[in-house]
Every structure is written in C-alpha cells, then in structure tokens.
User: Which sequence fits this backbone?
C-alpha cells in the first residue's frame, strides 16, 4: 500500500511506468512472436551500448547505437527520452523506436544531463552535441546525413524540437566536440514530437505552472530564468525552411497542455513550414490506447514515406 501511495503521488513516476507498458505494446505489435514475418523482416543490426558521445565537467554522456549493418547509407534516428528533464534514461525509451528499426533506420538512443546533475539549458546543449556526434561519425557508421530525424516523448519531444530547429548562433553548441562544422551541415530532415513542451515559459509562470519545469530551471524563478525559458522554447525559433515536423498530442493532456501542440502547429503554418498535428482524441499524457498507438505509427510511417525519408 505504501509503495502504491508513493507511486501515485509522483506523476512523472506514473509516466515512466506508462512508458514501459506503452513500449511493451509497441514491441509486441512490431516484433512479437505472434507475427514471425515481422521479426524476419527486421534488418541486420549491431548494438553498441554506452558509447560516450560527449564529456562535460564530470559527466560522461552516453548513447546506445543500433546500427543497420546492411550495405549503403541508412536514415538515422536520434531518440530522446522524456521525464520532465528530471528523471528517466535511455533505457526507459528503447521500446518507442522499435518500429524505426523495421523501417531500416539506424538508431542513436541518447542520455543527457538531468536537472539533478545540471539545470537548464544542459539538456538542450547535450542533445545538440548528440547531433554533432551523428554528423561527425556518419562515414564510420553509414548514417545518411540527409535523412537524420529526431524523435522524443514529453521533455524528449521538446529536446527533439530544440535539437532540430535551434541554430548554432543561439549559443547552445559551444561545448560540443568539433562545433566548428559548417552550420549548413548541422541539420535534421524531420522531427517527430510526441506530446512535447513547446513553450517552457508557460510552464514556470501563470496558470500552467508545472513542478518539473520549475525544478529544471532551478525553482526560485527570476527574470533571468524567465529569459532562459524563452530561449529554450521551440515556439520562439519558428521561421521558414525548418525541418519537417510531425506533432502527436492528446487533447486531454494535463502534464503538457495540448495548447502547446496547437500553438506550435499554428506558428509553423504561418511560417510556411511543412508540418502535421495528429490530435489523439481523449488521450492523456500518460495513456494512448492500443488503437491510438497503431494510428500514431501508421501516421509516422506515412509522413516519412511521403517526404522520401524512408
């Protein structure tokens, strides 16, 4: 009883449990033993765990690489876990990208510094450095740099957006190895944003204030922190010629307001950026039904095929 009470008192812990259950559903659908043909169609992969992609201060930032070993270049996914920037890890997210493996992607599943190690904007900086790592190692691992996409849930959705749309001039790339790359090379082709935060300021002041966002910014919100929140908000970087963006969001989400998805979609439309908002009717932040999960992955695949990424 005490353990159940503790779990119920921590919304992000509930989300972690959801992530595992949700991932198991996805894994069963795509790689379960009930459909052996799907298993047999999975490309030849080599898994390399805990590759250090960046070291900053006393933190070694690691990733797991699922490398497609078939000949030629392969589209590449940077997978970014959620957890409100304060908890979870790459190990809780690996089920979410199983379908991408069946579509021929190589997958780079990353960790980043949580608030307990470093406050905002550390997670944004780390995710940007992961993009540099992919580009710098493209030849070694046969990554197709014209077909890099980011994918994340919740805080991972936010980081997928910031990784894909924040320009080097914003100043978040200074700690990245080989950050002198031509800025035209530091790009992604598409972003898949699951229930991501798009306006961080909205979560630290006003009616939509959330504890996880306050913790990431360091509580005690000052004007300087409000300015930082604006600086790490994807909605403030919308301009023409951004990557393709697909947003999935439940309209009953109380952890990340559905309004974040709507605001992003409207701004992208106004800027003429190719994007799509998939609204999951009745879905909360921590529950998509089995049928909705099927719909989401069918939409992602259709979106990527339409734009010739797969």
Assistant:
């Amino acid at each position: 009883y005490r353990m159940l009470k503790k779990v119920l008192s921590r919304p992000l812990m509930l989300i972690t449990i959801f992530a595992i259950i949700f991932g198991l559903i996805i894994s069963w659908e795509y790689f379960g033993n009930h459909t052996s043909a799907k298993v047999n169609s999975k490309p030849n992969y080599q898994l390399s765990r805990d590759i250090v992609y960046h070291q900053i201060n006393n933190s070694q930032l690691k990733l797991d690489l699922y490398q497609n070993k078939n000949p030629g270049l392969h589209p590449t996914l940077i997978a970014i876990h959620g957890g409100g920037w304060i908890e979870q890890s790459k190990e809780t997210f690996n089920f979410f990208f199983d379908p991408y493996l069946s579509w021929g992607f190589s997958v780079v599943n990353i960790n980043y510094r949580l608030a307990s190690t470093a406050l905002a904007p550390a997670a944004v900086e780390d995710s940007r450095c992961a993009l540099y790592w992919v580009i710098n190692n493209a030849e070694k691992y046969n990554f197709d740099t014209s077909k890099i996409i980011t994918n994340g849930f919740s805080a991972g959705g936010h980081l997928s957006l910031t990784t894909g749309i924040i320009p080097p001039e914003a100043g978040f790339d200074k700690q990245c190895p080989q950050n002198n790359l031509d800025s035209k090379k530091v790009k992604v082709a598409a972003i898949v944003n699951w229930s991501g935060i798009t306006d961080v300021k909205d979560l630290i002041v006003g009616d939509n204030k959330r504890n996880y966002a306050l913790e990431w910014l360091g509580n005690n919100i000052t004007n300087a922190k409000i300015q930082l929140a604006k600086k790490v908000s994807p909605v403030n970087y919308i301009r023409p010629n951004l990557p393709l963006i697909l947003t999935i969001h439940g309209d009953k989400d109380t952890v990340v307001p559905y309004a974040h998805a709507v605001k992003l979609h409207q701004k992208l439309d106004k800027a003429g950026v190719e994007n799509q908002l998939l609204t999951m009717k009745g879905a909360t932040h921590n529950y998509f039904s089995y049928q909705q999960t099927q719909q989401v992955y069918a939409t992602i695949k259709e979106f990527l095929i339409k734009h010739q990424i797969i």
Observations:
- Residues 117 and 133 are 21 Å apart (CA to CA).
- The longest helix spans residues 11-31.
- Strands lie at 45-56, 59-68, 74-80, 106-110, 143-153, 190-194, 244-250, 275-280.
